[in-house]
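Appendix B. One record, verbatim.
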Amino acid sequence: MAVTLHDSDRWLDETTPSFFVKIFKEDEQRLNKFNDEISSKARAIYRAAHRSGGESVNSNLTRIDANISAYARKIPESDLPQKIISIEGAPPYDFTPVNFSNFPSAIISERFALCLMELEPEKHQLSPIVVEDFEKKVVAHAYFWRPMVILDAIDLNSTRIVFTKKDDIANSTCQLRHGDGNFVKKNVIDGHRAWADARCQSKLFISDAFLEILSSRQIDDFSWTHKLKEI
């Protein structure tokens, strides 16, 4: 099975400070520029495959294929934040999703990052970040995380998904609805512990096996929103 990672539930606890992230404006601008460039790259790959000298070169290549080809690359380290602000001064959760880049990314704790480095060292972009409060006091150290594995793994016959383009499913992204009936392709996710999905760009996926490893190491300051069976 696979699950989609979500925020820690600890922010609901009013007795302790919550970890809310503030990104510096100049860092946001650099990341937005990268987003624009990589989106243009995906469109260019798709157009080139379908139009070359007026003839179709590879009409079977979908927008999903083009997205996988374009987005499975690292953000230049010079474009990534070196520091972030914890608004309430709290240290980071094990997992905090952030809108850093096209396809999902997150701020993760050092222990979560070390686990990924140990188990899948070549499959993730992991960059250290200093966490400060508004007084510029260092609260903790964390990591920016963006999976470099981007899959088309969601089974399109699942009963709990909503397609963006119902009349063009091959090129469509989708949203997952809560409840049973969502599936991932076992042969596609086999061998991967964590990934992003080209059809569901707002979610980070991890395998059930990886979830068990994290739990055994008490890396569990997060929740999950969807559970998907393998077929």
